[in-house]
Amino acid sequence: MPRIPKRFSAVLAHALAGVLLFGSTVPGAALAAEDEAGAPYWVSLRTQPANLRVGPGREYRISWVFVREGVPLKVLRMIGGWRLVEDIDGARGWMLAQFLTRTRTAAVKGGVAEIREKADGTGRLLWRAEPGVTGKLGECGPLWCQVDIGGRQGHVAKAAVWGAD
After folding, report:
1. Per CATH, which fold does 106-162 belong to?
2. Which pTM was predicted?
3. Smallest Cα–Cα separation from 96: which of 80, 82, 79?
C-alpha cells in the first residue's frame, strides 16, 4: 500500500471534516435553516453594557459596547444563542440573545421628529424629539406610530423613526 504524505492527508482530513460539517444530511444544517426562519425581527437591549462581537462566540473580538438600555436593534440572523444584529447606523455584529428583549423600541432618525396628539398625525404638537432619542414603540398604522418617550405619550411619523417597519 502506498504511503500518503502527511501534508496531503491533513488536507484530505480537512476536506472530509468540511463535508461532514456542512453536508446537507447533517442535523446541524437543518437547525441552522430553522434558526434563519424567524429573522429578521426587532429587539431592544435588555441590559447594559452589552458587547457587540465580530463573530458568534465569546472568543471573537468585541467591536462595540452598547451602554444604553432600550436601543432598538434588528436581528438579521441567529446561530444558537447568538444574534447578528444591526443598529440605526448600519453597524452589524453578534450579540448574545440574553442581552436582548422583544420589547419594541424606536429611535428618531434624520432630523427632529414631531410628536403629535393623534394617531393620524393631526392634533396639536406635543413636543419635538431630537435624533437618537429612543422610546417604547406602541401600535403602528401605515404612516404613524404610538410612542412613549420617558412616560410622555404621543404619535410619531413612522418614517421619522428607526425600528418601526
Report:
1. SH3 type barrels. (2.30.30)
2. 0.74
3. 82
